[in-house]
Amino acid sequence: MGKGKGLLALLGLGALAFWKYKNSSKEDQQMVKDKINSAKDNLNKWGNDLKSKASEVMDQAKDKADQVQTNIENSAAEK
Prior knowledge:
Strand content: under 5%
Structural class: mainly alpha
Number of helices: 2
Helix content: over 70%
Oligomer: single chain
Radius of gyration: 26 Å
C-alpha cells in the first residue's frame, strides 16, 4: 500500500472516529475525553522521566570527564 492510500485510509478512520464521537452520548464523549487526557498525562510523565534520565546521564558523563581531566592534569604535574 502506497503512502497516498495509507494516508487516505488514516483520514477515513479519523473521519469515522469523529462521526462516531459526535453521534455518541455525552457520557461516552466524556469517557473519550478522559481517556485522551489520561493518555496525554501519561505521555507527558514519560517525556519528563526521559528528560530527567537524559539529564542525569549527561551530568554523570560530565562528572566523569572532569574527573579524567583532573587525573590527567595531576599526572602531567607530577612528571
